[in-house]
Amino acid sequence: MAVDFSNAVTTDEGVQVNGVVMHQIVEQCEGCERIKEFEGAKYCGTYPQPAAKWRLGICNFSTHTKTAPGKGKAKVNPLKASKRAAKGR
Ligand code: SF4
């Protein structure tokens, strides 16, 4: 769900879009294509609280990080691995 900044309003609590307070992006967001600028500050166009998206690891909405699963790790077939282990006994 994209945040529509044409509905953004500045309130005492900060910038709000449809009643949701928007938090500015965090350092890790730099380079992400979802960043939107509003009144000189940068926000995420997808998620109101970018810091929360990064708290548990890489933001799953980010466009600038490589998150291809299994990269650098050889896939192990558990069945074959156990047969191999059994043979070695
Ligand atoms: S999608 Fe994730 S990385 Fe990109 S701006 Fe939003 S919170 Fe930051």
Distance between the termini: 55 Å
Order of helices and strands: EEEEEHH
Enumerate the spans where pLDDT stays under 50 for 5 or more consecutive residues.
none
Number of strands: 5
β-strand percent reads 15-25%
Pfam family, one: DUF6811
InterPro entries: PxxKW_fam (IPR047766)
Region (Disordered): 67-89
Describe the structure.
Residues 67-89 are annotated as: Disordered. InterPro entries: PxxKW_fam (IPR047766). The chain has 89 residues and is of the alpha+beta class. It has one domain (5-87). Helices cover 18% and strands 20% of the residues. The protein has 2 helices and 5 strands; from the N terminus they run E-E-E-E-E-H-H. It has helices at 50-55, 78-87; strands at 8-11, 14-17, 20-21, 35-38, 41-44. The strands form 2 sheets. A 3-stranded antiparallel sheet has the order 1-2-3, with no helix packed on it. Strands 4-5 form a two-stranded antiparallel sheet. Residues 25, 29, 32, 34-35, 44, 46-47, 50, 53, 59, 61-62 line the site of iron/sulfur cluster.
Quick overview of this protein structure:
The chain is 18% helix and 20% strand. The chain is α+β, with helices and mostly antiparallel strands.
Keywords:
alpha+beta, three-stranded antiparallel beta sheet, two-stranded antiparallel ribbon, 20% strand, binds iron/sulfur cluster, PxxKW_fam
Layout of SSEs?
Elements lengths: L7 E4 L2 E4 L2 E2 L13 E4 L2 E4 L5 H6 L22 H10 L2
Antiparallel strand pairs: 1-2, 2-3, 4-5
The structure holds iron/sulfur cluster.
